[in-house]
Amino acid sequence: MSESKYREWILDTIDSLRSRKARPDLERICRMVRRRHGSEPDRTCAELEKLIQEQTVLKVNYKGSISYRNAAKVQRRSRKKDDVALTTAARRSAVEEASHSDLSNGDSAFGPVDQDEEDLEADTSMAMDTDSNADEEGADESRDGQDRPSPARTYEDAAMNCASARAVSAPCSPSGNRPVPGPGCSPGSGLDCVSFQKAAERPSSLPPSSPRALAHNDWAYHSAVCPAERQHPGMQRDKAAATKPAIQSVTTSPGTLKNNVKKEDGGKAEDSGLSSDQLVPDYAAGLDETKNVSDGRPQTLSLPSDNCTFKNKIDISPFTAAEDSLLNGGKGDEVSVKTEKMSQNLLQWTVADVASYFSAAGFPEQAVAFRTQEIDGKSLLLMQRSDVLTGLSIRLGPALKIYERHVKVLQRTHFLEYEDL
DNA sequence: CAATGCGCACCGC
DNA sequence: GCGGTGCGCATTG
């Protein structure tokens, strides 16, 4: 409940800031939510993180700083023609729809990807706690220092602080805790911070010529790439060492896995990726570890889990891809990737995992419905076509896609798996 | 003082 | 040319 409430508040706030032409950054969002609803910044940050994870809110790095976008609003006007349906829908109700297609992009530059990027892009951005180790400590000092040097970068500080604070205290769950007395919203998302720093560093470190690639919005997004991956292009800190291990160890929960899935960007980043879209994230992520493996499928490495992953890959990929290509005509891989990662152990998926999955799959709004109906992994396995089409009160178009391309696939995969076992 | 409004420059398409 | 974005400054409460 409160969650939906927060979702509304936060999205509203982001919209509001945007309309005011102010950057929707962590600090402003927290502040506005507090003013309007009295919510503590901490809580707001935590909720924001959740939204990011489920792709309801997109975290992007734009012009060197972090920004948040309302996924539902991000529309890409230039999409192909096939979305007629979408268009109509969009037209009809202003808000929500667009989400499926758009979440992909973060900021102005919308993903190069096309309509169906849903799947793929989505993944890129998720991240989660897991590691959130203390990224660069540069941030720290400012943290306890309580003083914030330049007013201009207040937000950054805030963000950083959050990160560090959080990272230290609570590696994972975003759900808050930690009443930190920060000025703004200090305790926020650990993940973000990472990005921040990167952001800061990135530009500077890069040669003038190339900057534009990242400098702009690009490398951003990787929103939450917290997992360990952060790149340390310029820096090398302890984490360099840590990084790698971290990734592998990540395993823990299904949700976690997703984050890692950077998949294709590793390769893709080059071609279209980086320039236009913010997929970049991956780029960041990709840099480190991914790169090593980079050749074909970075994702593999990211998937820590030993258990089923590989298996799924085998089963699912094939047809998922096929279906996907039929539907969209493109990037089948991505879908499969996602699927594979997900299918780890459906039975263990929590409601949040399910929601995250669908958000990542490009259906952030519908993900909310799953959450509302408290669909966890087990429930998902029991869902029938009619349940998806009518039981969730979601629009038919997305519902069909969700059922045919995800629910069915996940169920099939799951059962195949178990047969084998 | 914070919140808000908005001109303007940028950027990608 | 178009639309999204957000800095920086002006205005408002």
From TrEMBL:
<feature type="domain" description="SAM">
    <location>
        <begin position="349"/>
        <end position="397"/>
    </location>
</feature>
<dbReference type="GO" id="GO:0045892">
    <property type="term" value="P:negative regulation of DNA-templated transcription"/>
</dbReference>
<dbReference type="GO" id="GO:0042393">
    <property type="term" value="F:histone binding"/>
</dbReference>
<dbReference type="GO" id="GO:0003677">
    <property type="term" value="F:DNA binding"/>
</dbReference>
<dbReference type="InterPro" id="IPR048589">
    <property type="entry name" value="SAMD1-like_WH"/>
</dbReference>
<dbReference type="GO" id="GO:0003682">
    <property type="term" value="F:chromatin binding"/>
</dbReference>
<dbReference type="InterPro" id="IPR013761">
    <property type="entry name" value="SAM/pointed_sf"/>
</dbReference>
<feature type="compositionally biased region" description="Polar residues">
    <location>
        <begin position="246"/>
        <end position="259"/>
    </location>
</feature>
<dbReference type="GO" id="GO:0005634">
    <property type="term" value="C:nucleus"/>
</dbReference>
<dbReference type="InterPro" id="IPR001660">
    <property type="entry name" value="SAM"/>
</dbReference>
<dbReference type="InterPro" id="IPR050548">
    <property type="entry name" value="PcG_chromatin_remod_factors"/>
</dbReference>
<keyword id="KW-0156">Chromatin regulator</keyword>
<feature type="region of interest" description="Disordered">
    <location>
        <begin position="74"/>
        <end position="153"/>
    </location>
</feature>
<dbReference type="GO" id="GO:0006325">
    <property type="term" value="P:chromatin organization"/>
</dbReference>
<dbReference type="Pfam" id="PF21524">
    <property type="entry name" value="SAMD1_WH"/>
</dbReference>
<protein>
    <submittedName>
        <fullName>Atherin Sterile alpha motif domain-containing protein 1</fullName>
    </submittedName>
</protein>
<feature type="region of interest" description="Disordered">
    <location>
        <begin position="230"/>
        <end position="277"/>
    </location>
</feature>
<feature type="compositionally biased region" description="Basic and acidic residues">
    <location>
        <begin position="261"/>
        <end position="271"/>
    </location>
</feature>
<feature type="compositionally biased region" description="Basic and acidic residues">
    <location>
        <begin position="230"/>
        <end position="241"/>
    </location>
</feature>
<feature type="domain" description="SAMD1-like winged helix (WH)">
    <location>
        <begin position="1"/>
        <end position="74"/>
    </location>
</feature>
<keyword id="KW-0539">Nucleus</keyword>
<dbReference type="Pfam" id="PF00536">
    <property type="entry name" value="SAM_1"/>
</dbReference>
<keyword id="KW-0597">Phosphoprotein</keyword>
